[in-house]
Amino acid sequence: MAYTIVRTDGTNEDFVELCRLLDENLDEIVGKKFQRSQYVQYNTLENIHHVLIAYDGTKAIACGSFKEYDGENAELKRVFVRKEYRGQGISKTIVLSLEQWALSGGFSRMILETGEPLATAMSLYRSLGYAVIPNYGQYRCMKNSVCMEKNLQKNTFASSGNDRLDKQLEFIAEIDKMTHILRHTLHVDGSGRENDAEHSWHLGVMAMLLGEYAEGSPDINRAIKMVLVHDLVEIYAGDTFAYDAAGNTTKELREKESADRLFSRLPEDQGQEIRALWEEFDAEQTADAQFAACMDRIQPFLHNTLTEGATWREGAVHAADVFKRISPVKAYMPRLWPWVQANVAAAVERGWIQD
Question: How much is the pTM?
């Protein structure tokens, strides 16, 4: 569809109305009482002098803004698209336009606050290159907040003069973003949530150690490659909680779009190779992929046994849910199944899992 984008400020009546609709939408998602008591005080329109509004004819259909946080940082605020206009890339266009406006105004970084219940927003920001950072300012003690940042001034290294090597180095730098993708699984000492890079490394070591229990004689080295790359797509798609039914309905599409974007950054042969490993892991049809899938199930299961069932309790799961999730172990590493059963029984007895 054709639409126009207009620059204005926080006093614009159309912007005020769109922000009212945004607040109603947030009330629906996170709860009116919680939203109004915790966050509304930080979403006032005072001191917002940089606003974009998208129009379909004369109808205001979307908005976004930023305000100065400090001399270096602009803070992204009040991004919203009317329901009937969503899914057309309007919010992406607005955010990218705001970034250029902020950059031209002398800001080198864009920061923002969102939250895990706002899965669509978080997916958008990750797809645009935003990474999770420690909560800043007023959000520092708000456990439901997720703060993110994006460097608006792209850092580059001196070219090697070899296009293939430059692409490889750029890809290596890009996947550092895995360290910012937090999973729901806790570290075994309970100190915090692991990130995707830690998870993938852990699976690689596990694959080296547990190959002797696998059926079907998998190629352990290929399986290690699979577990190292299986979550790369989450750089843009984000992590999907295993027991999040709604999130899992969109996971396949989000991850495919992420794969298209990420693997195309590599030289063609390597992009195809890594994508093939990722797709093989996801299909779970070969002995190598089946063993890799077992590693991916055993690791969070083990962590749950050592963190009082943290993610099991978070998901309010039943024993049947856990057995379904870890079923590849029963099929492909049956010698470990009695250990699984014993730990599920213990978790039920302790109230971590519902019977």
Answer: 0.66
